[in-house]
Amino acid sequence: MPDVAFWQGNEALAHGALAAGCRFFAGYPITPSTEIAEIMAEELPKINGRFIQMEDEIAGIAAAIGGSIAGRKSLTATSGPGFSLKQENLGFAYIAEIPLVVVDVMRGGPSTGLPTKAAQQDVMQARWGTHGDHGTICYAPSSVQECYEVAIKAFNAAERYRQPVLILSDEIIGHMREKVVPPKIKAKDLLERKRPVDVPEKFIPYLPDPRDDLPCMASFGDGYTWHITGLTHNEWGFPTNSPEEIEKMMKRLMRKVDRFRDDIVEYETALTDDADILVLAYGSVARTSLRAVHEARVRGIKAGFFRPVTLWPFPDRELEKLARKAKTIIVPELNCGQMVLEVERAVHGKAKIVAQNLVNGELFKPEEILSVIEEVA
Amino acid sequence: MPAPEVFNWLRTRFFPHIWCPGCGHGIIMHSLLRALVGLDKKKSQTVIASGIGCSSRMVGYIDACTVHTTHGRSLAFATGIKLANPDLTVIDVMGDGDCAAIGGNHFIHACRRNIDITAIVMNNNIYGMTGGQISPTTPSGSWAATSPYGAIDPAFDICKLAEGAGATYVARATIANPVQAEQFIKAGISNKGFSVVEILTHCHTQFGRKNNRRTPIDNVNFFKANSVPLNKAKDMSPEELAGKIVVGEFVKKSIPEYTEQYQAMVKRVGGLKDGK
Ligand SMILES: Cc1ncc(C[n+]2csc(CCOP(=O)(O)OP(=O)(O)O)c2C)c(N)n1
Ligand code: SF4
Ligand SMILES: [Mg+2]
User: Fold this and answer.
1) Cα–Cα distance for residue pair B119/A58, rounded to 1 Å
2) pLDDT tens string B200-214
3) Nearest-CA neighbor of A375 among A275, A269, A277?
4) What is the total count of domains within chain A?
């Protein structure tokens, strides 16, 4: 690993994944995420990792889940149309509790939309894209350095909580080049799934460990035999129709993210102590927003900045505290208003919320956000 | 009753199974288990993946590393497992709908890659689980829930599809000859490459009911009366072969296997330092 690098966001993400211990990648090419696959194709064989280009994105995530079941930290990466195709098997990974990292480098939609232009239109799909209830862990990096860092966090969370973890990057972050200082990673910085302690004869694959409510995971080939299914199952991993067993499985799945919410949630603030106006933004838009907030301060406006690093779980309590002091929260997004719904839910009327939306394929200019700040000031 | 060493591969804890009494899928499970015992496979080193359907529910009852995936996608999961750990024996069981409809793309690409997986296609010419709708192998003219006026869709020949797509072992048997099915499964597992064993079976509940093969035994008799061994079929005209089921080994060839090729590449680029 170089001490300092000058990388694109996608490159940093790929290198971060490798540093996190990712040893399996399966995917299908799509702009603007393809560089991640290309780097994995080049790097993984050199460390006896596995790379495979599959026949489509459905197969890409399926193979990545297979890689994880066989014991390798696995990644798949895609963009809009491919993210749609991955939803079915993403649900499989949720219900079967398979650690996995899925990257979506967002571009404009719907459908083929704007392959080479930035957007943030997949925020709600990340939360609700696959059918059925589940908790979601989703990071949104806003710098190239952070692409590297969230890759490591995402793999750790996937292993720790035994579920797929998403990274929503966007075309701007994915393709912009910045200085990166890769943090030195020690073995203790990397989490691994809990292996079973019981002998194979006693192993109950979905029996939660009372300490953290999470089951241990054996890899295929480890000496254990067990059953994995996408059907609602009991602690043996066997399909069930019993209302008690169904409820038990669903409640435990849903508890995961809730129970560890405080460990997972991440956000960043600037100049919020005395802020009357907050600008809440994530991903590439956070960069422009922070600049606008600084400009507003120069003009004597008490503006502050709030950036969720985890879009899901959303830092609702933290935002709510600030909203008690702020009069107005501006939410600029490269979509027609998605995260703003979550902001409204978190703030429930304590501050006025102003959505600022852009869907013409361009990015915000700082002066555009500044002018909204000035309007509401 | 199966032999004790075969019985030992069953998760009897999960019985009774979900299949209708007399369903052909159980005969295929028995053939598969005899093949695994005959090949002296270890349960913890044997992976059996499946898709969704009555056929795919088989894996829940087998004490091995089993994964019941999503409809049609099992070969993509199995590909990931095999590539991640090539030491594992990987088998994939699926229905005709799984294999040839929703999973058709994964099927041809698994054949093309020649990855060392044995696909067992449990072809009952119908969507059993969802109540008897036509599948890509339903013979034209058959009656089904979604062909109330008779199917007009032509059917796939799964073995020809597999051969054309590059599978290195392709064979067909019927449940009327479970010993042959077992032999072909053994040969498929022993082949270092992608193997397809199509086993014609019946869904008397959904297909038989509407097509004059109401009971399991009607179906066994039908398979017996209409199976033609490959060496005999070679001398028959297309007219004579119409409606017949050609059974036998269609492809047996040896070309480099995917995970071996992958390991060779890893070696070439100096990647063999990092453990497994
Ligand atoms: C994505 C998706 N589409 C549809 C279904 C519904 N479905 C379940 S099984 C099945 C067909 C099963 O037929 P086959 O693969 O031939 O297996 P069989 O039941 O006949 O053994 C279908 C369409 C599903 N589970 N998932
Ligand atoms: S519905 Fe058909 S395929 Fe399914 S278990 Fe019954 S007989 Fe077998
Ligand atoms: Mg069928």
Assistant:
1) 19
2) 999 999 999 999 999
3) A277
4) 3
**Residue A122 is part of which domain span?**
5-189
- Domain range annotation of chain B: 4-274
What is the Cα Rg of chain A in Å? 21
CB B116 within 8 A of CB B257: yes
- Which of A162, A189, A216 terminates a domain? The answer is A189
**Is the CB of residue A251 less than 8 Å from the CB of residue A101?**
no
Task: Tell me the CA–centroid distance for residue B187 and ligand 2, in Å.
Answer: 27
Q: Are residue A79 and residue A177 in the same domain, yes or no?
A: yes
Burial-class residue A275 by CB neighbours within 10 Å (0-12, 13-18, 19+). buried
Asked if the model's pLDDT at residue B276 lies above 60, the reply is: no
A130 occurs within a structural domain: yes
**Residues A177, A220 within the same domain:** no
This prediction's pTM = 0.98
Instruction: Evaluate whether residue A194 is within a structural domain.
Output: no
The token pair at A4 is: 């300092």
| Smallest CA separation from ligand 1 atom 5, residue | B71
By 3-state DSSP, what share of chain B in percent is helix, strand and coil, each rounded to 5?
A: 40, 20, 40
ipTM attached to this prediction: 0.97
For residue A195, tell me if it sits in a domain: no
CA-based nearest distance B167→chain A, Å: 16
Q: For residue B13, which residues of chain A lie inside 8 Å, CB to CB?
A: 236, 238
- At B197, phi and psi to the nearest 5? -120, 110
Looking at the structure, tell me whether residues A73 and A89 fall in a common domain.
yes
Question: What count of Cα atoms within 13 Å lies in the side-chain half-sphere of residue B46?
Answer: 21
Residue A86 and residue A56 in contact, taking contact as beta carbons nearer than 8 Å: no
For residues A139 and A28, membership in a common domain is answered with: yes
The response to whether residue B250 sits with its C-beta less than 6 Å from ligand 1 reads: no
Q: For residue B275, is pLDDT > 60?
A: no
Residues A96 and A212 placed together within one structural domain of the fold = no
Q: What is the pLDDT of residue A1?
A: 84
A152 alpha carbon to ligand 1 midpoint, in Å? 38
Pairing relationship of beta strands B245-252 and B169-174 according to DSSP bridges: antiparallel
For residue A235, give the 3-state DSSP assignment.
Answer: coil
Phi, psi of A333 (to 5 degrees): -145, 150
- Picking from A219, A243, A261, the residue at the C-terminal end of a domain is A261
B24 within ligand 1 shell (Cβ under 6 A): no
What tokens were used for A268?
A: 């960043």
Question: Chain B window 103-162: which residues touch A at a Cβ cutoff of 8 Å?
Answer: 105-106, 109
Percent of chain A with pLDDT over 90: 99
Which residue's C-alpha comes closest to atom 10 of ligand 1? B53
Angle, nearest 10°, between helix axes B25-38 and B178-190?
Answer: 50
Q: Looking at the structure, do residues A179 and A238 belong to the same domain, yes or no?
A: no
Atom 5 of ligand 2, nearest CA residue: B19
CA distances from A257 to A75, A134, A264 (A): 20, 9, 8
pLDDT tier, B1 (very low <50, low <70, confident <90, very high otherwise): confident
Decide if B158 contacts B123 (C-beta within 8 A). Answer: yes
The answer on A130 and A12 residing in a single domain is: yes
User: Does some domain include residue A59?
Assistant: yes
Query: Do A85 and A14 share a structural domain?
Result: yes
Tell me how far apart the alpha carbons of residues B263 and B16 are, in angstroms, rounded to a whole number. Answer: 43
pLDDT of A277 reads 98
Range B4-274 has CATH code 3.40.50.300: no
Which residues have C-beta within 8 Å of that of residue B255, sequence separation ≥ 6? B114, B168, B193
